[in-house]
Design brief:
Elements (H helix, E strand, L loop, with lengths): L5 H12 L9 H9 L13 E3 L3 H14 L2 E7 L4 H10 L3 H10 E7 L3 H9 L7 E5 L5 E6 L4 H27 L4 H13 L3 H14 L7 H7 L10 H5 L2 H8 L3 H19 L2 H19 L7 H9 L3 H13 L6 H14 L6 H17 L3 H13 L3 H14 L3 H15 L2
Parallel strand pairs: 1-3, 2-3
Antiparallel strand pairs: 2-4, 4-5
């Protein structure tokens, strides 16, 4: 595998960025790779944050939350973190976010790399920057949010936590007494999961599946098992036998559940190096989501992810080349999707043999049809290979093809950044 930490990296990468839906790769993410770590953004936060640097200050903030009967929101950032700066500029400065948080939370922020910040991060099992921890008014950990979170998503999460915590207290009392009914037990698990406490939800789901699950899945069973299974589980065939029923029971959570099953299965396949599970994902899971996504080739995506995260570089290159030569011949959109997916996954390692191959793949796309995206990615990969002169040729071509304001701003800033190196 690519490193001894590949499985945690895989879980974080897959779940945080929802790779099941990441079929058309956004150029903005690669732009951030080059620019955000040196960008100096002006802090415009309207959220009334208390800056905390010591344990005493944190205790004072918790007391303030307790006195006002509000939940405590703790944002842990790093000064070098690009997504943290994006949160400051795009999210915490949003009046809607500021209004909701200032009225429903006591908000705290801290640098996770100060002396106290490191201790706090360790105690709360920080996974990455930014991380947002939510506590009840009496200091009980309630939920956490990891990574850049857009305005609407953050507000929805914070509202869900507020409402969910009240529900949890009621379910928790019945659960601890041993009087909780099956439907309420399923509700309890759903609320805990929705609030982001995956570990607790997993623990409760395991108990439910051991003590409550029926041979033929009930509606309550489906609500639980949908988020705690993979395609290797004995329940899969019964679960997947009636897609319309699953959609009806899960409602708006249907795609979230399919994503979770995808992620669970992919991680298991990588951990155990089981290509048979990848084939099963392509053939069994994909048909259940194609109608909803209408996206880039979902049957190819798990193979590309599997070969990359098991460090099977030769197999990965062969897979893309053979598919493009055989059943995807001259399909430049497919090749672009595959190549950009690999570029995104390889941001941390920047594997030279893959980067060189990506140059060829994007060049092949350009040969078939000239598009802004193709030239931009071609230039980005060349830049990562430290071939700045050739990269500028591609960027200049992309500049000439930029049509949207976003494209124009991106190419202008990237070229400005390169010229100053």
């Amino acid at each position: 595998m690519r490193s001894s930490e590949i499985i945690p990296i895989t879980k974080t990468f897959i779940e945080r960025y929802n790779l099941i839906f990441l079929m058309h790769m956004k150029i903005r993410s690669l732009f951030f790779l080059l620019v955000l770590f040196v960008a100096s953004l002006t802090l415009q936060a309207q959220v009334e944050f208390i800056e905390v640097e010591t344990l005493e200050q944190m205790k004072a903030a918790q007391k303030k939350a307790s006195d006002q009967m509000l939940m405590l929101f703790v944002d842990v950032y790093a000064t070098w973190c690009g997504p943290c700066k994006m949160m400051d500029r795009e999210v915490y400065a949003d009046p809607t976010v500021a209004d909701y948080m200032n009225n429903n939370y006591v908000s705290v922020r801290m640098d996770g790399e100060t002396d106290f910040g490191r201790i706090y991060a360790s105690e709360n099992e920080l996974e990455g920057y930014p991380s947002m921890f939510i506590f009840s008014d009496d200091g009980e950990p309630v939920s956490k949010i990891v990574g850049y979170t857009a305005t609407e998503e953050l507000i929805a999460s914070l509202k869900s936590v507020n409402e969910g915590y009240r529900k949890i207290k009621g379910y928790q009392a019945a659960y601890q007494k041993g009087t909780i009914e099956n439907e309420a037990f399923a509700d309890y698990i759903s609320v805990v999961r929705a609030m982001g406490d995956e570990e607790k939800a997993e623990e409760l789901a395991s108990e439910y599946m051991e003590k409550v699950m029926e041979p033929i899945l009930s509606d309550n069973d489906i609500r639980v098992v949908a988020f705690h299974m993979d395609l290797d589980d004995t329940w899969w065939e019964g679960f997947a036998s009636d897609p319309d029923r699953i959609r009806r029971i899960l409602g708006e959570d249907y795609m979230l559940a399919m994503e979770k099953i995808y992620n669970n299965t992919l991680v298991k396949a990588i951990e155990e190096e089981r290509i048979d599970l990848i084939s099963k994902m392509a053939n069994k899971l994909t048909p259940l989501v194609e109608e909803e996504t209408g996206s880039w080739d979902l049957r190819s995506l798990p193979f590309i992810q599997y070969y990359y995260y098991t460090d099977k570089t030769d197999e990965l290159i062969s897979y893309v080349d053979e598919r493009f030569a055989r059943d995807r011949k001259d399909d430049h959109r497919w090749l672009y999707g595959a190549a950009s997916q690999i570029t995104e996954m390889d941001q941390q390692y920047r594997t030279e043999v893959l980067l060189k191959k990506e140059v060829d793949w994007f060049a092949a796309c350009i040969e078939l049809e000239e598009q802004f995206d193709y030239y931009f990615y071609h230039g980005m990969v060349l830049f990562l290979l430290q071939d700045q002169d050739t990269a500028m040729v591609s960027f200049l071509k992309a500049e000439s093809m930029a049509s949207s304001q976003e494209q124009k701003e991106m190419i202008e800033q990237v070229m400005g950044f390169i010229k100053h190196q």
